[in-house]
Structure formats: structure tokens, C-alpha cells
């Protein structure tokens, strides 16, 4: 799993890390019992405050997505079912961002949902790859 | 927008009404700096805003004309040596009192001075930053001097780092490496950091507190999250002859040729800003978060040109 951060992203940095771990689980680049980089490693790689990484790991640990094995490091939980909870959390995040954007533009929920379906139908008609589901092994998803 | 909590106990660095003049020039004016324990506090300001003067007062290298400064609860004017023993300081300018020494000799000299000096870590930093041990201190370039200063400041893992323009003179590759080393350093041991810079974008993801110094006055001081929440870019649809409400501290205002579309940076909670805008007949079309640098710019005067 490679974590990248976008400073212009509206989400706080720790949430970006949380979401990327979730996405890596979904697409399969991160699996049950895989080790995660240490706080120190990830902070150095991303040049971020280590507290940001700790905060992200605490949140994921609280959700039961990862766990700490004392003296050995941080690992993905052995009984992770990314297809349900993680997928839901990921979709929720995407939906929340779309909704905020819609409200700012003075659009209603129904308008938004209708248009998402319309655009998706158009994309499928053209056979565009952007509408197809994220396949395991892909690093960047449609989010 | 400055911090209101007057208690100094929770802060590693606290100044109270700190003022300093050089002749007629006012370098610091009633500065109440508050650096919480464990924070990475980035102090922003144009050159000459008073950043280096503030650092020198904290190191007791300058005496303030009014006010006091405390580091770990110690008055810097009375307990200068005790304060300095707990601080890793990278000064803006290298006075180079040991110009004839080699880098290796100077590092040994510093190691003897600090009981906590970590030799293995000093060697690691020396290699990672490309400091050449046999070079004479007096013959170092600006960038080489900076790298040596960073080794000297970090190698004994002091609980407070005062870094005055720490990446000045470093090339982009070394800059990134130096900041990555700093991030790892913070992961290894609890450390409070006060960094001054006019390259805030470099500190974007390290900073968790931001202060803006303008002409000697601390015009903003807050957690990074608060800065990014309360300073945002607004795209507006406005009536004719519209002017931005002054209390929203508009900066970077751009107007379409027809005058109805406006983009500007405004200060305040988004909901409150939207309410005030609505009262002036403006409609919010889009709100976006700003990079830390652009958010901090909201507190610096616009280019007069």
C-alpha cells in the first residue's frame, strides 16, 4: 500500500490516510494480517507530523480495521470484511463530499442522484472505463 | 484571532506583551506567543517581520524592551543558560565562532557539552544530510552551514527545537530530506518545535499550529485545523456595486469583467460568513479550502503594487 496526500484536499490529513487504508483494503492491495508502515516510517515518507499518522492509526484501530502487536508493529485485522463495512464507509465518504458540493451549488439531493444515474448510464453506453468497478490490484480507484 | 487563554502553564513557550525596538524601528509589539507542549508551531511572516528577533529573545541573545518570555516556565532573561541547555537552536545567520574547526571537531565539542548527545544519531544525521566531517566550518557554504546546524540542534534530542528558517539555502532535495528527518525525529521523542519560515508550503503537512507575524505584531495564532476551517476561498454571485463586508477581512479579491462574479478569501466560520454575505445580497456559489500558505496570506497585507 502506498499512501499519498493531497494538501488541497478538503479532508484533514489524518482522514486522507484513513480513507487510503480503507481503499487499499477494498481493492486488495492491503489484506488481512498485512503489516502497515510504522508511524515513524510513514511520517518520514510523507513528511507529515507523526501525530497525524498516529491519529489515523488510532481511528482505524478503534474501528477494528487494524491492531497493534506489541513490539512488532501494526497489522491489518485477521477478520476484516472489506466488502461490507469498509465499502460502506468509503461510499459514505464519497457521498458526503458530493452532497456538500451539491448544497454549495444550490442543488437538491434528488437532482444530484438523478444526474449521477444519468451520467453513469451515458458512460456505460460509451463503454467508458471510468464507470466500471474498481478491480483488485488497481492502486487508484474511482474515488 | 489571537489565542485568548492567558495561562502559561500548558505552553512550552509563552511570551507576555513582548516588545523590542531598534532605535525607531519596532521589531516586536506586544507579542503573546503560545506554543503548546508537543506542537509543531510554524511562524510565518515576510522578511523583517520580527521572527528572528523573537527567536533571539527566547534564547536570551536579545533583551526585550517590555514584556517577558518563558520557556518551560523559566524566564528567559533570568535563566538563559538553563533554557539554552534544553533548546536545539538553528539561528537565521551563522555567526561561526568556531570557523577554524573542522565539522568533526565542532561536533565532538558539542558532544562534550551536552550529556544527552547521541553519537550514533549524530553520525546518522551527518551522513543523511551530507555533512563532510573534514571541512572547516569557516569554509562552508550557506547550505552546508545549515546542514551542520541541523545536526548540532537535533543530535542531543532537546525537548524544544527553535528553527529559524531551517531550510534556507538548502537545495530542494536536501530540503525534503531535512524535513523527513525532522518528521522521524518527532516520531522518536516527544518534542515541541517552533519553526519560522517564509516557505510555509514546505511545512504544510508538518505544522499543527500557525502564527502570523506582521510588522512585529502577532496578527493570527491558532491550530492549523482552525486556520483551514475559518479561512476559505469563496466564489460569489453579487449584486451591482457590491463590496465585501470589512469584518470578513476580504483578501485576494478578483472580479469578473461584468462584476457579478467575485472570488475572494474570507475569514470566519463558513456558516456565519454565508449568513453575512446573504445580508449583503451576495450568493455563495462555491467554497474551497486553501493550502496553508494561502490561508496564512489572508493575514498579510496585499502587495501595494
What does this structure look like?
The complex is a heterodimer of chains A (143) and B (305). Chain A is mainly alpha-helical. Chain A has one domain (1-143): Winged helix-like DNA-binding domain superfamily/Winged helix DNA-binding domain (Arc Repressor Mutant, subunit A, Orthogonal Bundle), CATH 1.10.10.10. Chain A has helices at residues 13-27, 39-46, 50-62, 82-104, 109-126; strands at 35-36, 66-69, 73-76. Chain A has a three-stranded antiparallel sheet with strand order 1-3-2. In chain A, α1 (13-27) crosses α3 (50-62), α1 (13-27) packs across α4 (82-104) and α2 crosses α3. Chain A is globular. Chain B is α/β, with parallel strands linked by helices and 305 residues long. Chain B folds into two domains: 11-215, Rossmann fold (3-Layer(aba) Sandwich), CATH 3.40.50.300; 227-297, Alpha-Beta Plaits (2-Layer Sandwich), CATH 3.30.70. Chain B contains nine helices and 15 strands. Chain B has helices spanning 51-58, 80-85, 103-113, 119-128, 142-154, 172-188, 224-230, 270-279, 292-297; strands at 11-22, 25-31, 34-36, 40-44, 66-71, 74-75, 87-90, 160-164, 192-197, 209-214, 217-223, 231-237, 251-255, 261-267, 283-289. The longest helix of chain B has 17 residues, at 172-188. Chain B is elongated and about 70 Å long. The two termini of chain B are 27 Å apart.
The largest sheet of chain B is: 6 strands, mixed
Largest interface: A-B, 24 and 27 residues
The value of Rg of chain A in angstroms is 17 Å
Assigned CATH architecture of the largest domain in chain B:
3-Layer(aba) Sandwich
Please identify the structural class of chain A as seen in this structure.
mainly alpha
Low-confidence spans of chain A? 131-143
Spell out the helices and strands of chain B N to C: EEEEHEEHEHHHEHEEEHEEEHEH
The residue fraction in helices of chain A comes out at 40-55%
Overall CATH class of the largest domain in chain B: Alpha Beta
Q: Rough shape of chain B? A: elongated
Count of individual beta strands of chain A: 3
Question: Globular, elongated, flat, extended or rod-shaped: what is the shape of chain A?
Answer: globular
Strand order of the largest sheet of chain A: 1-3-2
Under CATH, the homologous superfamily of the largest domain in chain B reads P-loop containing nucleotide triphosphate hydrolases
Instruction: Please write the CATH class name of chain A.
Output: Mainly Alpha
Domain count of chain A: 1
Number of E-state strands of chain B: 15
Give the biggest sheet of chain A: 3 strands, antiparallel
Amino acid at each position: 500500500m502506498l499512501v499519498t496526500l493531497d494538501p488541497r484536499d478538503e479532508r484533514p490529513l489524518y482522514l486522507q490516510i484513513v480513507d487510503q487504508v480503507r481503499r487499499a483494503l477494498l481493492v486488495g492491495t492491503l489484506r488481512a494480517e498485512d503489516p502497515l508502515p510504522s508511524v515513524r516510517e510513514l511520517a518520514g515518507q510523507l513528511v507529515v507530523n507523526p501525530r497525524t499518522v498516529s491519529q489515523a492509526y488510532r481511528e482505524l484501530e478503534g474501528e477494528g480495521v487494524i491492531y497493534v502487536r506489541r513490539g512488532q508493529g501494526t497489522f491489518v485485522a485477521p477478520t476484516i470484511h472489506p466488502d461490507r463495512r469498509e465499502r460502506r464507509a468509503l461510499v459514505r465518504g464519497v457521498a458526503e463530499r458530493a452532497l456538500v458540493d451539491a448544497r454549495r451549488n444550490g442543488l437538491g439531493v434528488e437532482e444530484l442522484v438523478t444526474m449521477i444515474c444519468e451520467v453513469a448510464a451515458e458512460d456505460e453506453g460509451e463503454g467508458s472505463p471510468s464507470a466500471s468497478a474498481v478491480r483488485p490490484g488497481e492502486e487508484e480507484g474511482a474515488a | 484571532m489571537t489565542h485568548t487563554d492567558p495561562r502559561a502553564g500548558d505552553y512550552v513557550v509563552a511570551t507576555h506583551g513582548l516588545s523590542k525596538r531598534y532605535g525607531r524601528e519596532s521589531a516586536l509589539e506586544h507579542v503573546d506567543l503560545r506554543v503548546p507542549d508537543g506542537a509543531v508551531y510554524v511562524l510565518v511572516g515576510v522578511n523583517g517581520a520580527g521572527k528572528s528577533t523573537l527567536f533571539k529573545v527566547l534564547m536570551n541573545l536579545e533583551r526585550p524592551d517590555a514584556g517577558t518570555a518563558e520557556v518551560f516556565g523559566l524566564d528567559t532573561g533570568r535563566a538563559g543558560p538553563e533554557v539554552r541547555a534544553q533548546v536545539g537552536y538553528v539561528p537565521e545567520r551563522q555567526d561561526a565562532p568556531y570557523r577554524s574547526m573542522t565539522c568533526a571537531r565542532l561536533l565532538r565539542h558539542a558532544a562534550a557539552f551536552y550529556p544527552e548527545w547521541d553519537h550514533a544519531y549524530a553520525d546518522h544525521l551527518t551522513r543523511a544530510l551530507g555533512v563532510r566531517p573534514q571541512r572547516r566550518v569557516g569554509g562552508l557554504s550557506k547550505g552546508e552551514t545549515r546542514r551542520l546546524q541541523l545536526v548540532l540542534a537535533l543530535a542531543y534530542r532537546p525537548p524544544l527545537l527553535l528553527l529559524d528558517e531551517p531550510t534556507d539555502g538548502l537545495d530542494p532535495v536536501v530540503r525534503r530530506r531535512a524535513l523527513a528527518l525532522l518528521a522521524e525525529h518527532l516520531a522518536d521523542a516527544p518534542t515541541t518545535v517552533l519553526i519560522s519560515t517564509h516557505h510555509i508550503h514546505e511545512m504544510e503537512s508538518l505544522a499543527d499550529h500557525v502564527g502570523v507575524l506582521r510588522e512585529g505584531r502577532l496578527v493570527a495564532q491558532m491550530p492549523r485545523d482552525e486556520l483551514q476551517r475559518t479561512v476559505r476561498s469563496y466564489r460569489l454571485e453579487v449584486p451591482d456595486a457590491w463590496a465585501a463586508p470589512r469584518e470578513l477581512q476580504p483578501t485576494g479579491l478578483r472580479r469578473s469583467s461584468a462584476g457579478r462574479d467575485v472570488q475572494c478569501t474570507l475569514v470566519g466560520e463558513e456558516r456565519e460568513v454565508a449568513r453575512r454575505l446573504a445580508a449583503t445580497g451576495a450568493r455563495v456559489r462555491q467554497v474551497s479550502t486553501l493550502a496553508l500558505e494561502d490561508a496564512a496570506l489572508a493575514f498579510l497585507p496585499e502587495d501595494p503594487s
